[in-house]
Design brief:
The model has no long low-confidence stretch (mean pLDDT about 95). Helices cover about 50% and strands about 15% of the residues. It is α/β, with parallel strands linked by helices. The chain has two domains: about 130 residues, Rossmann fold; about 30 residues. Helix 3 links the parallel strand 3 and strand 4.
Length: about 170
Amino acid sequence: MSFVAILMGSASDWPVMQATTEVLDQLGVKFEVRVTSAHRTPAATMSYVQEATERGCGVFVCAAGLAAHLAGAVAAHTVRPVIGVPIDAGPLSGFDALLSTVQMPGGIPVATVAIGKAGARNAGYLAVQMLSLADSALADRLASERQANVEKIQTQNAELQSQLKD
């Protein structure tokens, strides 16, 4: 099975990106986590992307705040899917990161999720969905988790309806 590479522009992004690793752990997907910067360590970023691709990386998840160029820089060096997670930092609370991540030139796509921890969690699920196209066991685990979520909501609704009747 291939793995997911999680790249962060700064170690300060880790508290948000742990949500991605939690999803991957829960579904049994291998991953690597690195701090690398599109601006401060561009050669090291490019080298890691190439090396990870050669080792079988299936999806890159890239988190960055402010200018948020990491996902785009990674996408420029691979044809593997890249998911950008805008980090809620700076005076614009991540809106600048969102726009920087979404506004990629044609031909260099970056799938972009919501700002912050919810986006990081969805990046994990999106990476799993991408990998599950070639891994039926992973697809089955993902489907089981989705069904468990359905059942959880149905139980919560039934409990609420019961309380409202009392």
